[in-house]
Design brief:
The complex is a heterodimer.
Chain A: E1 3-6, E2 10-12, E3 18-25, E4 33-39, E5 45-52, E6 57-60, E7 69-73, E8 78-83, E9 92-100, E10 105-109, E11 113-117
Parallel strand pairs in A: 2-11
Antiparallel strand pairs in A: 1-3, 3-8, 4-5, 4-9, 5-6, 7-8, 9-10, 9-11
Chain B: E1 9-12, E2 18-23, E3 35-40, E4 47-50, E5 64-69, E6 72-77, E7 86-93, E8 98-100, E9 104-108
Parallel strand pairs in B: 1-9
Antiparallel strand pairs in B: 2-6, 3-4, 3-7, 5-6, 7-8, 7-9
Classes of the chains: A mainly beta, B mainly beta.
Amino acid sequence: EVQLVQSGAEVKKPGESLKISCKGSGYSFTSYWIGWVRQMPGKGLEWMGIIYPGDSDTRYSPSFQGQVTISADKSISTAYLQWSSLKASDTAMYYCARMFSSGWYNDYWGQGTLVTVSS
Amino acid sequence: QSALTQPRSVSGSPGQSVTISCTGTSSDVGGYNYVSWYQQHPGKAPKLMIYDVSKRPSGVPDRFSGSKSGNTASLTISGLQAEDEADYYCCSYAGSYVVFGGGTKLTVL
């Protein structure tokens, strides 16, 4: 069974750094892209970027380029999303999802990680 | 890169059909047959309902169908059921990245 299990909720202060994770299981982690999607409170889905764990090829949405870093450790089947300096506007639910590059769609999703940034 | 345009809300009675539109440009929806649709219930992760414009993943009822004409994609739900009440998002490849629609809230009356 394909599963993506994300790390738990985080509460941070503005300016702090953060790295959240997404562990894949039940499939060949290095053979599929993993993407990250943001959902701000009461708002819609926003595509942030993807990584191919097999060779760490990474693509970013122009809206998120330079704002976050996506990485992966294929040895432990885990993808990451990190911030170097959080802002209050980063408060959101973040989902990871497996992506089929042949169709650019997400077939399996993690349960989401809620990030709250508040002073 | 702008979000794809969806109606904010649609509604229908049980048993009826509803169609949700998703308008983009020739750089996304119109340029590729890589449109997907997701259903999201409150507090839950999104669920893939349609991919490659009109294909259904295993387990998705055939009441859900997708199509595309020019720069506009559509999701049609026939035989509406109470459990179909949710938010629906379209999504399209836009050349090296992906863009979502703003989302449509479906209310089953």
